[in-house]
Structures are given as C-alpha cells and as structure tokens.
Design goal:
Radius of gyration: 24 Å
Oligomer: single chain
Helix content: 10-25%
Number of helices: 4
Number of strands: 12
Distance between the termini: 36 Å
Strand order of the largest sheet: 1-7-6-3-4
Order of helices and strands: EEEEEEEEEHHEEHEH
Number of domains: 2
Length: about 230
C-alpha cells in the first residue's frame, strides 16, 4: 500500500489484508530459505518472516508491521518504508527504502483506486465506533433521564413479543436522541477536508469523544457517535 491508514490499520489482518507483499520466485534446482524484513521507520516495529521457497516455485509473503500508537501523527506526513530480503546465510537479495504517506488518526479513506476501478473500503468506518469511551457512558446515563422508566436496560426484555421488543428498543433509541438534542447542543460543523493521493478518497472524521467535547459534528460524525451509544447498550 502507498499509504498507512492509521485509524484502520489494526483491522487489516482481520480482513486478510496486508500492508506489503513480497513475491519470491526460485529458479534454481533446490529449495531456498529466505528472510524478509520490513519496517515503517519511526512509526512501526520491524516485521520479520522466514519462508522456504521450493525449487522452480513462487511464494507470496504478506507483512503488516505493527504500528507504534504513540507515533501516529495528527496530520498526514511522509515516512520511509524500509525492507530487506536475504538468504539464510545473510547474503542480500534485495533491499530498498521507499517513501509512503502516513495519514492522521482522524482520517478515513472511503475508496482506493486500483487497476482503474474504485475499491469500496467504507466498512472500515467501524473503527470510529467507540462504545467503551467514558464520554459514551456519560451520554447513556443522561439519556436515562429521557426514558419513561429513567433507565437504559439494553437487551433485558426477556420473553417479549416482537411488538414489545420493538417498543422496548425504540424507547431507548429515542432517549439517546433526546439527550443529544437537549443536553449536548451539538452544532452541525462540516470540516471534512483531508488531503491525500489522487488514487484515494480521504475524509476527516471526528471520533465520538471529539464530537462531544467540541459540541460539533457533521453527518458521518453524528452517525458514529450515535452508533457508539447504541453499541454500548
């Protein structure tokens, strides 16, 4: 990948996606053991893989070097991707350092252009849904004041009928809405601009904590805020 999407990077392995892939072809008559190393200098740990490449065979190895959370930038920056491929005895096959971009932690990329087609990666917006943030606990507590029973019980309706479940759930959803409307006074503020590559479609998205602390959100900011409270319940 030409860019590190800091906010969703940790989710890549769960989607069978890797940051950098190495294709190794052995044209010899015996198998070879090869060591592969990659690191985003200053931003990640070093990933190391050892692989056996059969004679006259090709093996693809993917790596996703682990990011150091404390080094994730607040603005997009450029960083060097360093990688090295060697034989078991240390003899060098290839090494290189190439520039990549590291997006800020509040930047979502909705799609990536590959082979002339835009690939939808919008499902990664789930990284912004943060049900365990303390600010969400506070929101749910305030919402209880707008519920007829002054509680927020989640899924404890037991053997309710479908109609009872619907009403039971809707009352909690309505209470959250009333709390956001009456207590938080969130104003629509649209500041989504995030600059990136022509082959990517980035947008700045506020985390729920940021929307609450600044009393501001646009449509997607409000969506992940509301989703966080619902998931908390």
């Amino acid at each position: 990948m030409r860019s590190v999407l800091s906010a969703v990077y940790l989710q890549l392995p769960n989607h069978n996606m890797t940051f950098i892939d190495f294709s190794l072809t052995n044209k010899g008559d015996r198998s070879e053991t090869v060591m592969i190393e990659s690191e985003i200098l200053g931003y990640s740990e070093r990933a190391i893989s050892t692989v056996n490449v059969p004679s006259h065979g090709t093996v693809t190895v993917g790596q996703t070097p682990v990011l150091k959370p404390s080094f994730i930038p607040r603005e997009m920056t450029t960083a060097p991707l360093d990688y090295r491929v060697t034989f078991r005895d240390g003899a060098l096959i290839k090494e290189s350092t190439e520039p990549i971009r590291v997006y800020a932690k509040d930047t979502m990329v909705w799609a990536v252009l590959e082979g002339g087609e835009w690939i939808d990666i919008s499902e990664f917006i789930g990284a912004w849904v943060t049900p365990h943030d303390p600010s969400i606990d506070t929101l749910v507590r305030r919402a209880a004041e707008y519920h007829p029973s002054h509680t927020m019980e989640g899924y404890q309706c037991g053997d309710c009928s479908d109609e009872e479940w619907s009403e039971y759930t809707d009352l909690q959803v309505q209470a959250l809405f009333e709390a956001l409307k009456r207590d938080y006074h969130i104003t629509y503020i649209n500041t989504p601009i995030a600059f990136g590559l022509d082959t990517e479609n980035p947008q700045r998205v506020r985390l729920p904590f940021d929307s609450i602390s600044t009393d501001s959100a646009n449509c997607i900011d409000g969506t992940v805020l509301y989703a966080s409270a619902l998931e908390a319940l």
